[in-house]
Amino acid sequence: MTSVSSYFSDRYSHPVYRDEFAEFRDKLNSVSFDEGLRLELERRRAEFEALATWNYHDPRIYETRFEHITTDARAECARIFDFMDVPIARRGRQLYAGLIRLAAKKALKRVGIRVRTPVILHQWLGVIIDRKSFTKLAGRQKGTEDPRNHYRKGIAGDWMNHLAGANKALFKEQWGRLLIDLGYEQDLDW
User: Fold this and answer.
1) Residues 6+ apart with CB under 8 A from 136
2) What are the extents of the domains in the chain?
3) Are 117 and 86 a contacting pair, CB within 8 Å?
4) What confidence tens digit (pLDDT) does each residue in 104-141 have?
5) How far apart are the C-alpha atoms of 54 and 122, rounded to whole Å?
6) Between vectors from CA 20 to CA 163 and to CA 40, what angle results, nearest 5°?
7) Which residues of the chain are under the pLDDT cut of 70?
8) Rounded distance between C-alpha atoms, residue 105 and residue 103, angstroms
9) Backbone Cα Rg of the chain
10) CA distances from 117 to 86, 103, 104, 172 (A)
11) Are 40 and 11 a contacting pair, CB within 8 Å?
12) I need a labelling partner for 145 at 20 to 30 A (CA). Which of 22, 83, 85, 88 fits?
């Protein structure tokens, strides 16, 4: 859940470039974890309200999840590109056509013409995913937590280990239906 991740990021790793962020960080550092998480839930209220009103069945919107990206990034990226009608060129004619499109784009750019020619070369996709992997960005394996690092743990569902007691009751009361609508829970008995 975004509020648990936001708590750690707001407390330790997000850049503080406005006074209100500095004040919020100071507040998080002056209270208990549970109180800080409650403050984060309140701070994120507008986001949860927006999430609760989205049409999750709109065919024009592709919905992805953190767990899809962290479990099989290559497959999820392929689904995202497919949804956007951006081909992933693998070999043969498809690869050749993709290379031609990229070369034409570069040539046109040199003379001041910008053209969108979306194509992703299969070989590049793996390189990009590898360079942006949790292991590369965090310098440690998924599941190894560093609460002060922006890339805290790298696994989905860890929020369940932190949302408890009064904060869990507060979330259930205000936004519990959202977890059901998004398919994370079957009912409010979690």
Assistant:
1) 130
2) 2-58+156-181, 66-146
3) no
4) 777 777 777 776 656 666 777 888 888 889 999 999 99
5) 33
6) 10
7) 1, 89-102, 115-121
8) 5
9) 21
10) 9, 10, 9, 45
11) no
12) 22
